[in-house]
Amino acid sequence: MLKPPTPVDEKQRLATLQDLKLLDTGPEDRFDRVTRLAKGLFGTPIVLVSLVDAGRQWFKSRQGLDATETPRDISFCAHAILEDRTLVVNDARNDERFSDNPLVTSDPFIRFYAGYPLSAPDGTKAGTLCIIDREPREMTPEDLTLLRELGQMVEEELGAMNMVRNDPVTGLANRAGFSLIAEHLLAMCKRTELPAYLMLFHCTNLKEIGDNLGRSEVDRVAVELSHLLLACFRDCDVVGRIATDLFAVMLASSNPEIIQKAQQRLFDALAQRNRDTNCTYLLEGDSHAVARQPDQMTNLDELFLDVQSLMHSAEDPTSVQTQKFG
What we know:
39% of the residues lie in helices and 23% in strands. It has 326 residues and is α+β, with helices and mostly antiparallel strands. Helix 5 runs antiparallel to helix 6 (175-192) and helix 7 packs antiparallel against helix 8. The radius of gyration is 22 Å and the shape is elongated.
């Protein structure tokens, strides 16, 4: 096993890492949604956002791994931050840097590793977005592009640490946060020839609830709806609250049947809620979605306009599904 060399800018790199104020903080959906998406797109059992500290690598986001950190001297990511491009290890057993590494010879039995080095705002390398498999595998040029796109989403978050990206009531991405990751997804889908879908869910009587019962009840309903949306869609789908009564879901690498089933789960759950509730009101709303194939990709604003236009028309050939409940 070869221990990773120390970067030439190590002093500045560590100072920048501390300034990010991410080490030893709790999970955040803005990072977790990227690792969930990567796990779904690549099908690897482990995906991490790893920050390389002085003597350890610490995982800000992790999918498929219980450990929160490992020593730096056995870290694959400590090698990856020395690179300006993705480090790919197809089979760690055949790589002299890692063949006798305890992460290879024992749990989690790493065979394949690909780590995109994450640049902090000052250009130093904070860590990686990495995908890990217990079986050897290859990376195509398209795979490398996809991992870079996802890594750039994480870098956007590192560069926007002081900007408000989440809805304070539900914890979901707000309009700015949703737009940031959705624009990246659209560009990624176009380059990797994957379809993209945008669904809007409108709670049509939320204003009435607020007028009758006050803002605190609006907040309670928003939290309830956010839990239902997260439960009904996939972990890799991006869910945001983009207005008081309007929620958005962006899906990549999907198909109309998956969206229809997710919408149906949502409406079934809401119908069950309305049957069982002890509240003095029922929830009412509707859902609209549009699909875009890679050769039809537009920007997010145009996609929003397309979905919103469905709210005023009974039928549209671009609609995946339109539903109402209440």
